[in-house]
């Protein structure tokens, strides 16, 4: 198994060798295929659970009734991932992308996980800036339920503008599915507990940004880092140049994957005694 050592209050402790990857809105666990294979190649145990109702191939999910997906809430997604983490043999390293990064922050606030990495994360409630993603927000803000499929032009403009057109079309077909509008609305606008509380004794957190990201611009990720630094726990920020919101799959994704894991193995820690994971 891969190994790392971390420090907590001056004491060196073994760091977990289990990883849980959490996908974001409009995607499925397949968005983590590259990270999962790379981490397993380093001897780690890796899981990438789907959000509730989204455990199916992309083509099947695109045919689901919007009403079916519209029942899902942000709290239900957080609680489902907390249950997955609790079921693992050891507290996992939590790595999330987009709205999955916000879920990581929520889980850490509840004492869940050895540490967390939030990549191109949706910001905690109240920190929403004015990125070009306002286009998607306006569409979702008018809905309390249902689901919205990001159109190809939206994916091209907001997610993966750095990809060549042929690669972008293939990525869209393989990965993009409808997003439960209620989950996204609750995360961005409330109600529903989108806020991350920056709990004083939460596990360590790394936030990663891409300087070409239009969904989670660097300034917005930096604002989230400032918010999280209210906690006494370690909070770090890393920005990768020339990367879009698709930085976990575009050329150079290996650098992001390796930086995230190396940081986690160096800075993670065991769950605090007496602190039960919760959403």
UniProtKB/TrEMBL annotation:
<keyword id="KW-0378">Hydrolase</keyword>
<dbReference type="Pfam" id="PF12697">
    <property type="entry name" value="Abhydrolase_6"/>
</dbReference>
<dbReference type="InterPro" id="IPR000073">
    <property type="entry name" value="AB_hydrolase_1"/>
</dbReference>
<dbReference type="GO" id="GO:0016787">
    <property type="term" value="F:hydrolase activity"/>
</dbReference>
<feature type="domain" description="AB hydrolase-1">
    <location>
        <begin position="20"/>
        <end position="249"/>
    </location>
</feature>
<dbReference type="InterPro" id="IPR029058">
    <property type="entry name" value="AB_hydrolase_fold"/>
</dbReference>
<protein>
    <submittedName>
        <fullName>Alpha/beta hydrolase</fullName>
    </submittedName>
</protein>
